[in-house]
Amino acid sequence: MLWPYNYCNCLLSQVVRTQQVVTATLGEDAVLNCELMKPEDARQVTWQKETTRANENVATYSKRGPYVNLPFQGKVEFEDEGLQNCSIVIRGVSRGDESCYKCLFNTFPDGPISGTTCLLVNVRCVASMSFSDVTKNASMVIPASITGEKCL
C-alpha cells in the first residue's frame, strides 16, 4: 500500500515548479520563483519562511491583490503577481534571510499544493597580501589572508 502513496506524492511535487536552491550574495536581491504547472482553481498563494519553531507567513496574493506581512514590509515584494505564477523578491538579503521558503497554493477543491526553495546567503571575501622589500631573483614568502564566511 505504500507505493500508491509515494507515487501520488511524487506527482504532486511536480505540480509546483520552484528552484530547489537560490544563492545570493549578502546585500543583493534574491528572487524566489513559484509556478503552478497545471490549471487549478487557486484561490490564494502564500509564501512562508520555515523556522525552527513554525512556518512564518511572509506574503499572500489573492484575487484581492498582494499583501506583505508587517515584519517583511519593505524587505519582500512580489516580482510576479498571479494565482498561477507568484514570485517574490527579497531585497538586500541578510544572514537572517537564509532559510527555506514555502510557496503554498490554496486550491479548490484539491486543497493546498506547495513547493519549497531554500535561500543560501554568501558573503564576499576580502583577500589581502602584504609585501616588503623584494630583491630580484630572491625567494620570498608572501603572507596572505582571506576573511569572510561562506565565501564566493
Automatic annotation (TrEMBL):
First-listed, main subcellular location of the protein, grouped into a coarse class: membrane
Pfam family, any one: V-set
UniProtKB keywords: Disulfide bond, Glycoprotein, Immunoglobulin domain, Membrane, Signal, Transmembrane, Transmembrane helix
UniProt GO cellular component terms: axon; cell surface; membrane; neuronal cell body
Coiled-coil stretches noted in the UniProt entry, renumbered to this chain: none
Database matches in InterPro entries: Ig-like_dom, Ig-like_dom_sf, Ig-like_fold, Ig_sub, Ig_V-set, OX2G-like
Membrane topology of this protein: Single-pass membrane protein
Key word Signal present: yes
GO biological process: heterotypic cell-cell adhesion; negative regulation of neuroinflammatory response
Subcellular location: Membrane
Domain Ig-like: 13-103
GO molecular function: cell-cell adhesion mediator activity
Record's keyword annotation contains Nucleotide-binding: no
Protein name (database record): Ig-like domain-containing protein
Organism: Hucho hucho
Lineage: Eukaryota, Metazoa, Chordata, Craniata, Vertebrata
